[in-house]
Amino acid sequence: MIGVQDFIGYYDWTFEYLRRNHGEAAVQDYWLRAISRDSQRHARGLIEAKGFDGMEEYWGHTLAMEEAGYTLDRGEDYFRIDMFVCPSKGDLIQRGLAAYHDYCEHCMGWVKPMMDDAGFVIDHEHNHAGQCYWEMRRPASRLPGPPADRGPHDVRNLPHWRQAEHHRYVHSESTTPEPDAD
Amino acid sequence: MSAGDFYFAINATFRFIHDAYGKEALIDYWTAMAREYHADVAARFRSGGLAEVRRYWADYFAHEPSGDVSVRLTEQGVEVDVRDCPAIRWLRDGGREIAPYYCEHCHYISTAIARQAGMRFELVGGGGACRQVFSIDGGDA
Q: Torsion angle of alpha carbons B77, B107, A39, A62, nearest 10°?
């Protein structure tokens, strides 16, 4: 039986299997149709119905269950996650697994379509080493660029934040971070 | 995702591959997973024999979040008696539509692992309760 205890390993392997056999577009399609619209329909339901409250309910529960190292932050016009120790990527790093070339991308792969449908934009950046931040807000209150420093709990202030390759999204669109921009 | 969500994702993955590429593609996915991702499990079974098969599955089911499963070594092989499958239980409790071919992954993956290990695998049942037997190839399952 494929169980949940080893899920991360074959989740990563599945991305690579799909890429190898059906192309990169199939991986994106998988994140959209299988994960965002099917598997995570409960997250969609919560966030579409309750907005920021739904995000707090969903991620407050799941990140605690995963025993992640993270903080949640809520402002008047945003909901934010700072991930210091991603349990998922951390598990792969610890086990030396990297079947797919960009495991971290799967989060945007399923969360972005959900936020699109719920009417939110995302500012996000990950460093492929188990750290990332997410800031969701309504399009009307979007920022001109990446969010300002949020203080001590801002993952970007970690000494080891600036490592490996970074991927950044502003207003849910991919951008290329400038070297030494932060 | 939390642990239970992972069962949702597994179910959704099977449905996606089946609906996008067909049943043969889904079977290929399962057998490729057994051949590649589970190669170390097959190697453990090959080197450790049925005692290792028993250890592996007893430990495996002990770490799933629910279910009622016993694993024992008999003269015929290793019998995995699934009285209440943890995956099916979680999917049912979560109100999810279970892909009608969901249970087949056990047959295809375990058969491929067993073959790599020089063993046989047989499965009877499904839908939340089944009996699985690993035996030495050439023996009676």
A: 10
